[in-house]
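[Q] Does anyone have a clean structure-token version of this?
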Amino acid sequence: MSTGHIVASYDDELAQLHSAITEMGRLASTQLTRALKATLDRDGDLAASVMADDARVDALEQRIENQTLKLLALRAPVGRDLREVVAALKISNNLERIGDFAANVAKRSLALNQMPEVELTRSLRRIGDAANDMLTRVVTAYADGDAAAALAVRDADSEVDLAYTALFRELLTYMMESPQRITACTHLMFAAKNLERIGDHATNIAETLCFQILGQAPGEERTKGDDSALTIVTPGA
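[A] Here you go.
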């Protein structure tokens, strides 16, 4: 956080913005935790609650957007302060998308609850836990202003990608062996993809935070482990 401005209220406004982003990040993480639990426990009431609470995430994004626009218009920040305000706008957008993906997982769980349980549903936990670990860590890195921690989160995305690709292959094989379960497995695929995308957005936040703190984005292209688009499953293999 920036300190020492002549106008004390400016520091207060930046502090409020920082607090709102941290609050939004923690809410998004809670939403993801609840969506995953609703899916694994086949808890329709919890899933419905996650979907309803997505409005809280949206409201926080709107509040942050209003705060950033006000700061840009009235304070004309420069340097580190400008990066902080612009980063808040970008990070809140990524958190809003994470909230949407968590709500989508909850929505898929309601469809899955109408069908016999697929054992591979349990495999969502590895992807979901890894994605939520990234999200929790990047929110902490933001709260602490820790660029090194943000870079570590960025590097962790490959674990989410690998878990997603492994489940994708398992589901393709399972559908070939049990065509009657194709509908349930399709819902599982979409849920898994939503979780993988949460990891991508946590990575975006980490990269934005690095830019905010260091004044430049990470130089090297991050390693990606999602090769599901190249996956081929041969019948009987």
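[Q] Thanks! Anything notable?
[A] The chain has one domain: 1-230.
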